Request: fold
Amino acid sequence: MSFLSDIWQAVGPTTLTLWLLLLVAVTVGAALTVGRLVRYGPARMLFLAPAFLLFGVFVLYPIGGSAWMSLHDVRADRIICSDGREIADLETGEKCRRVQKMEFVGLDNYERFFAKTPRNIKRLRKEFGKLLSFQYLNPTLTEKERDKAKPVYPRLTDAAEALMNNVIWLILFQIAIPIGLALAVLLNQNHFVTRLMKPMFFFPFVLSPTVIAFLFQFFYNTSDGAPLLWFFEAVGWGKDGVLGTNGWSNIGIIIAAWYPQIAYCVIIYLAGLTAINSELIEAGKLDGASGFTLFRTIVMPQLWPATFICVVVTTIGALRSFDLVHVMTVGGQKSEVLARLMYEVGFGENGGNYGYGATISVILFLIMLVFIIFFVTNMIRQTDD
Amino acid sequence: MYPSPEHTWRPGARVFYWSCVASVTLVWLTPIFLLILTALKSNRQINSEQGAKFTIPEPFLPEGFMTILSNGAFWTSLMYSFMVVLPVVCIAVGFATLAGYVLAKHKFLGRTWIFAIFVAGNFVPFQVLTFPVLRMMQDLGFGEWSPYNSLWSLIIFHGAFQTGFCVFFMRNFIAALPTELIEAARMEGANELQVFTRIILPLLRPALAALGLLIFTFVWNDFYWSLVLTQGDLMLVPTQLVNLARGQWQNQWNVMAGGSIIVALPPLVFFFFLQRQFVAGLTLGAQKG
Reply:
């Protein structure tokens, strides 16, 4: 019999694989038996099953999995067998699937995230006061005065800094929408030149974020004769450039992220503009509306679906932001965001703390959940019949 | 049409309009021009005084392209990218078309909820899935083999995640098809599989092309998951590019610019040749809401 168990060890499915196969079998079985009670029942269930099972197992379940993991201490290097045995307890020659050990610690990880919150709040208030008085941006200040304007101890915690930067992303990233709208209105002509120009404004959307990151890293570089060096010197950042200046690196990255986002908004708004009812515009003109009033009262309301999509995609993009930060500054110069902090905690140099990483990602998810509920209820209301 | 056609405007307004278009286009394309110029310069020229500016490459040499294309790891990553993206497009689009048909044309209790779950799951910041998906990939498999650290983990995960967007897209597209066709086929005695393959699928050809292109672009451009789910040489091409930029080709701007252009090329080629499908795919939700 040990011969059979050897074969099982060599080619047999792992326990998790078995459970998934069982899930598939049960679904097919249910479709073919219980499903028959309803007209079209088997077909409906079998058509829905592949997409729903795949999505459920690898997208929906992991959300709960992260929440569960965030209540545990999980370390990359603390390994046990996936069936719960310790590696040391294995018999010689026996093998097992290795996963990280999970030790229940309750809300410890969340306490770590929110530690020192009152101090952080006090600190943030000072920081914003300085930012608003443009102390960072004044070239007439002497070196000494600028040093004074630079942040002093106690520093913000990593978590608070990332949270603050995510809020800045959330606000500033939205500016891509009005810019996109303005460009769309500018380009909505039938002249052959504008028809040629349109794809030039669309294509940054299909560029990989990595490419966008390189593009702007080079655009922002501060070697001799760099394209933006004159600007950096004029505002007093000098050789640090925008990416090397605390506080402004975040904004430099957001502007880079605008590039594909504006392109997306132009695409969406141009489609919205072609669907506009010209009779309403003629009626508005007869009533004496013109210029900005016409735009605000007659055009904008018709563009509402386009605006909605743009806001949804921009908000998601702002909260997901990872690629550009990871490539351009690796989270340095106070440009850390939650998604990247999570990566750093889990996989970075001093990382390996999967439990705390999961906690950060759950907090990110909870922020997003507020928006998701709002967006989805809105969409369902529109599509329901 | 809004705004009104420019040839009906006053001459002054037209001059202003066209100068606006010209200057905006110039500003918009500035980073791209810089990228192309950089890719065609020699590294010595870039590091010389004023070399990083908008100067003409002298000599006009594709040194950057040559260097990156002679790198084995880069080529391997390019191949891996195709090996992941093509199955993902088939899985996600195929499964989603089946599900989208049922969600669009069958009325049953809870269908709105199922649709809402697909839509909502699509909005999730995908970073929240990282650790459990990693754990599952390590735990799945047969015998010694697990999808973790092979391309299968990327195929499985991207296939699952993109299914959400595909279901959203396909349901909305199929819902706009005339129901009478389906009912007529059912009257003739066709079963659901026949309705799907003979009636629905032929009508979906433009939608399938548009959706396939979008998913290709999304997965091709992904950076995060190949960072998390694979190690060593299994990286997809955007991740490999960053990896090379941090190691071998630090501060070799012409090589990185050439690499960026090559990475961007497949989606760009699709985009410029099939622009109409692309835009149609993206704007499906924008007009209808």
Notes: Chain A is about 65% helix and 5% strand. Strands of chain A lie at 72-81, 98-104.
